[in-house]
Write a structure and sequence with these properties.
The structure is a single chain. By secondary structure, the protein is of the alpha/beta class. Helix content is 55%, strand content 15%. The chain has 6 helices and 5 strands, in the order βαβαβαβαβαα. It has a 5-stranded parallel sheet with strand order 2-1-3-4-5, sandwiched between helices. Helix 1 packs across helix 5, helix 3 packs across helix 6 and helix 4 packs antiparallel against helix 6. The longest helix has 26 residues.
Length: 150
């Protein structure tokens, strides 16, 4: 499976990519958000942070993925060291399939990727039902993101 890695720290990107490769995944690294948006339709799962390269906002990136028809059902795992308020964390967790805090051992990321892919592949019926709730979650995420900026 193809795993798109979108992380701010170059060392993190390389370390996780190498470990994923070792575990027989095909990691693809995106260094910018536009590059990540272009690569996302080819990914089986996206692993992203909250703070992205060049200071980009991971919450905006996630919202853009969910708004795009080709990526709205692509599983997303948030891997971050950023501390979120309770409301923002709930919004992120409601729209993503996985959430991991750094520091995170590469093995934990691999287990989470496997768990998420198994859930998606085994839960096609549940995914269709969950699809409708993501639109509401996406709106909540946008609202929480706007409130935190003011």
């Amino acid at each position: 499976p193809v795993v798109l890695l979108v992380q701010q720290n170059c060392d993190d990107r390389e370390m996780y990519a190498e470990f994923l490769r070792y575990r027989r995944f095909r990691p693809v690294i995106a260094v910018t958000v536009p590059e990540a948006l272009q690569l996302a339709p080819t990914a089986d799962v996206v692993v992203t942070g909250i703070v992205l390269p060049n200071g980009a906002d991971g919450l905006d990136f996630i919202t853009r993925l969910r708004d795009e028809p080709r990526t709205k059902t692509t599983p997303i795992i948030v891997l971050t060291a950023t501390m979120l308020t309770g409301e923002r964390q709930q919004a992120v967790e409601s729209i993503c399939e996985g959430f991991l805090r750094k520091p995170c051992l590469p093995g934990a990321l691999v287990r989470e990727v496997r768990r998420v892919l198994a859930a998606v592949r085994g839960g096609a019926v549940e995914q269709a039902a969950d699809f409708a709730s993501r639109g509401t979650a996406s709106r909540r995420l946008r609202a929480a993101s706007r409130r935190s900026r003011t």
